[in-house]
What does this fold into?
Amino acid sequence: MTRADPFTPEESYYECLECGSRTLTEDHIGSCPACGGEVRNIGVPRE
It folds into this structure.
């Protein structure tokens, strides 16, 4: 049986796939503020 983690962070931690910079924010961001590259939310588990 798989259980979902009920934890929901108030802030999201994003990492840029191009330059590697990381950003902590309360809002969703679509691109890296440093270089404009694609970002992913690293505050959630990946399986």
Notes: The chain has no helices and three strands. The first strand starts at residue 12 and ends at 16. The two ends are 16 Å apart (CA to CA). The mean pLDDT is 85.
